[in-house]
Amino acid sequence: MNGGRGRAPGAGSPMLTSCSSQKMCSWVMSCCLALQHLAVQTSLLCIFHLLLLPTLPQEPPHAHTTSKLLARSLFACGISTVLQTTLGSRLPLVQIPSFEYLVPAMVLSSHLSPGASTDRNGTAMASTCLVPHCRDTGSWADSLQEVSGAVLISGLIQLVLGVSGVCGWAARHCGPMVLAPSLSIIGLSAYKEAAFFCSTSWGVALLLVLLAVTFSQHLQSCHLPFCAGPHAWEGTTEYSAPTLRTFSVLLPFAGVCIVCAILSYFHVPWESLDVTMAQLSWANSTSNAPWIHIPYAGAWRWPLLTARALAVGIAMAMGCSMNSVGCYVLCRRLLRAPRLPPHACNRGLCMEGLGSVLAGLLGSAGGTASSIANACAAGLTQAGSRRSVQVSALLCMVLGLSPRLAGLLTHVPLAVHGGVLCVTYAVAVGTGISYFQYTDIDSGRNIFIVGFAMFMALLVPRWFGMALAPLATGWVPLDLLFLSLLMGPVFLTGFLSFFLENTVSGTLEERGLLPEQPWKARAGDCHLHGERGEASQAYKLPAGLRRLLPSSCKAFPCCFLCPGSEEEEEGSCATEEGTAGPGEGTHLLPKPSSGELQPAIRPSQTDMPAWHTVA
Questions:
Q1: Cα atoms found within 13 Å of the Cα of residue 203, Cβ hemisphere only
Q2: What is the mean pLDDT of residues 391-416?
Q3: Spatial contact of 309 and 149, defined as CB atoms under 8 Å apart
Q4: Average pLDDT of 365-386?
Q5: CA–CA distance, 307 with 313 (Å, rounded to integer)
Q6: pLDDT in tens, 206-265
Q7: Which residues share a beta bridge with 237?
Q8: What angle do CA 137, 110, 287 make, to 5 degrees?
């Protein structure tokens, strides 16, 4: 996954060059990658709604209503994805309602319903009242209305965090000792959901996992004749893309769904659904759903803003902000892109906030956040393209306009969703572990910080999930706030590791903060001017928008959302001076382990990540 930059296109670099010379073929590749992103996004959206809707008071909504809810989420996620890739961080990140929205929403809905429900592990519980003085508001619609209010509040808070520069400041102070446990827990936090959905049919889930692992790892160098042909002006043949690795998620996803459809057609039993699973099944969900329904603010109900919604919204914003920063780092590392500057982090969080505000106004049950699963899928397939993500966003908006088409997505077998979680979130765990190489992991200080943060992040949510009434501060909104935060493993890991890393004394070498560390770029390092120039080019706003901005972005809030004039000049100079011919080195870098010098070869334009060059 961390292959050298000098490899041939398609062998180890994340870009796709097999169709770069033919416009039509490039669009074919982008559309196929967009379908792959849509498949992963569909699994996460279905998982979110399947786990949340049974926790609503009284009877869950009817099948055609769930199709409308899914359509509204798809529409909001599509718009948020376009904003993220165009005006936000500019990384090829798909937007979905993440698990950091699911846990607080389930806490709020279970507080409103004293009846039976399902916990986050999917197991049935006799009572889900996690705070004292639970009461029933009367219907699932009222509860969903209050959840939408919490989503709206979380979006507004994320906007404030992005505009004020808090997100970029926090990202700059997150070293390897914060990133390693945080990314690892982000991946491990989905193991319960993965096991829950895989249990419907372990054979189907294992088949998907086996195919994905085989295509992405064992057959990663297998080149099939896909969109290859001679150059009209060069007379040379263009290499084909590593098709099996590039579509190592889409091909297993589609193949397993086809196999399940064939088995169902011949009435071959392959799925075992218990009582809990039967309640989650969305059979015949498209029978009464309309073909066309244009979502707009207040079409269903306006979000309900209460003290409970405010408390849960704060927890949603804090958890999703930490998840998003981790997703930015994860995507950047998997695609071997330049280090993300603070202003790109701030813009990304602002766009996610706008998407969550839109989702709340549309009546969605979850906001929008960067998809860990899609970022991991891009790293697994080594195919990251901004254009393909934007095409998938357009497909989401089209599906969001048709609840009948959106309802068709609910016919995907539940075990397929579990298999997708197994394949994608495993990459996040491995990426987090890879950050330990930059620290002194033999240090007692580091061993304690990592072990304590990760263990408590898994222990505390489990304890609160098992306890009947663990919190009783005397004010219900405060109970909901603490409970929503303490049941989020990502928040606990990020908070504990950040606090201990910055309060427990340790040397820079011990913490992995030496200037020559390859993951860290400091201002003033001459050998990193080229990387800063690449970052300036990769994460800068579109040219048309930059012309509308003032020449010097020093006024609030532009100072936190776009690079200053000094940074732009430095980046442009670095780009000009750092350009070298193929095979030429421009600087000599000292190895971190010794004083020897080694050449640092800057990647040429063709070696830039596809998410930057293609778009």
A1: 7
A2: 90
A3: yes
A4: 90
A5: 10
A6: 999 999 999 999 887 777 665 444 443 344 444 567 788 889 999 999 999 999 999 988
A7: 230
A8: 80
Q: Which helix (H) or strand (E) holds 333?
A: helix 307-334
Answer yes or no: are the C-beta atoms of 361 and 298 closer than 8 Å.
yes
The whole-chain average pLDDT of the chain stands at 77
Kindly state the tokens that stand for 534: 């690449």
> Which of 302, 418, 328, 332 is closest to 95 using CA atoms?
328
User: Does residue 328 contact residue 91 with C-beta atoms inside 8 Å?
Assistant: yes
Residue type at 593 in one-letter notation: S
Q: Which tens digits make up the pLDDT trace of 111-143?
A: 765 443 444 444 333 333 444 444 444 577 788
**Calpha distance 356→323 (Å, rounded):** 14
Q: Which residue has the higher pLDDT, 113 or 562?
A: 562
Nearest of 564, 414, 412, 589 to residue 514 by alpha carbon: 589
Distance CA 358, CA 352 (A): 10
Torsions phi, psi for 580 (to 5 deg): -140, 160
CA 367 to chain centre: 13
What is the spatial distance between Cα 360 and Cα 600, in angstroms, rounded to a whole number? 48
pLDDT of residue 592: 40
**Cβ-based neighbours of 515, under 8 Å, separated by 6 or more:** 522, 525
DSSP, res 302 = P
Task: Map 78-118 to HEC letters.
Answer: HHHHHHHHHCCCCCCCCEECCHHHHHHHHHHHHHHCCCCEE
